Amino acid sequence: MHPTDPTIKKIIAKILSYSLIERTSNHSAFSIQSFIHTWLKERLDVRESKEKLLDAVRLTGQSVSYEEPRRFDHWAFKKRIVLHLQVCWQHTREYLQSKPPMDKVRDFIGNLSWIAHVFYELQYWREAEEIDTRMVTLCRNYFGESDLDTLKAMTNLAMTLHKQERFNEAEELQVKVLPMEKEVLGESHPDTLTSMACLAGTLYSQRRFSEAEELDIKVLPMRKEVLGESHPDTLTAMANLAMLLYKQERFNEAEELQVKVLPMRKEVLGESHPDTLKSMGCLAMTLYSQRRFSEAEELQVKVLPMRKEVLGESHPGTLRSMACLAVTLYSQKRFSEAEELEVKVLPMRKEVLGESHPDTLQAMENLAITLSARERWKEAAELCTRLVAISKETLGEVHPSTVKRIQQLEDYKEAQLSQIGQYSPPTQLQERLVLLLCLSKTHVC
To answer: Angle at Cα 343 formed by Cα 338 and Cα 345, nearest 5°?
Structure first.
């Protein structure tokens, strides 16, 4: 039944009249009074508690899967209910210690997968991985290794591992799933093609570009044949191949695909759809890498306000657009404009992603480089000191990013001493600073 159905509206109005629930401040959701929670907990026996838990998982799963998952209002809703999902999962974990009835397992798994997806989207990796792992075990025990729900659960777990950069573990699962899906569904089935694309993504992340390209080149023509050239999944395959070419610095080939994908996504999905905006952003990156800065900026200034409207200002995708525009401005020596954006990006990334997240660290590095470009060496050194400390803690002292940031910090400190007349930097240091300030690859988003 749709939430706007008149019957549902009457029921909600009746419950509101008894003050059993209340509306949130923006009238987008309802919350149940705490005394109702307490009363229900005390009233229900063990059997009823289990039944109500299944209902809670079902309703929660349906609520988060109901609308377009990447709309800002839906993303914000998921952020708002994440504490409820954590409590729901805590009780579900206890429930799974007993053996759920066979007739309810499939629906239960389907709804639970949506809860895992929310944790995945919000980057609550521990919860997402725990649910995905339990679902793999549950599906194997009930349905067997080659059951479609088991294969889907394994694929979801692989994606969660991938996002945590545990690429070997992700690949190990993916190479198990793919041949089984080929056998059960056939090589050209959409789910099989999705698994091929995901494996290609894992290889891509390990910089095994030739292996990834081999898979992407297989996926694209089959998706065209099975789904049609303008199907969203086909356009995603084209976009994936374009990014692979981009990573190999084959910019002309990447651009050729991207200029095909963008108008088709506009037509099929609409100009403000997240995938369309992503295509615009990726094309801007390709133009930027060819030093066509004004063309890149033209696209980026279109993307940013639309992402703010569709996703919200603090959404990771919006922050990425702000960061990329700042990079383009920096490369045109418009340092004050770049800094203006970067000082907005950094605190929001800290709040949304956490201080030790790779994107937050990159935002710190970008801002430090911009400050150094304006010869504000003291501020750059202070920021880079914190950056190096976090990098050492999270990545280790010998990680290439940590080593690079340690060198940057030394450069900032030496330049600061030179600025106040306590030190005269050798020509070699001056050359390193010029390299640091001018090479676009040093300043990435």
So the answer is: 95
How far apart are the C-alpha atoms of 366 and 445, rounded to whole Å? 8
Residue type, 77: F
> What is the C-alpha to C-alpha distance for residues 353 and 316, in angstroms, rounded to an integer?
8
- pTM higher than 0.90 for the full model? no
Q: Write down the mean pLDDT value for the chain.
A: 82
Inter-residue long-range contacts of 284-292, CB under 8 Å, 24+ positions, other chains counted? 284/324, 284/328, 285/246, 285/324, 286/242, 286/246, 286/251, 286/254, 286/255, 286/258, 287/255, 288/324, 288/327, 288/328, 288/331, 288/440, 289/246, 289/249, 289/251, 289/440, 290/251, 290/255, 291/331, 291/440
Span between the terminal Cα atoms of the chain, in Å: 44
Print the SS3 string covering 230-247.
CCHHHHHHHHHHHHHHHH
Phi, psi of 21 (to 5 degrees): -135, 165
Task: Tell me which amino acid residue 4 is.
Answer: T
Cβ atoms of 332 and 341 within 8 Å: the answer is no
User: Which residues are CB-contacts of 412 (< 8 A; sequence separation ≥ 6)?
Assistant: 368, 372, 377, 380, 381, 384
Q: Is 250 helix (H, G, I), strand (E, B) or coil?
A: coil
Burial of residue 35, with CB atoms counted within 10 A of its CB: 0-12 exposed, 13-18 middle, 19 or more buried: exposed
SS3 call for 2: coil
Residue 203 scores a pLDDT above 70 = yes
The residue type at 264: M
Confidence of residue 433 (pLDDT cuts 50, 70, 90): very low
Residue 219 neighbours by CB distance under 10 Å: 24
Rounded-to-integer distance, Cα 136 and Cα 151, Å:
8
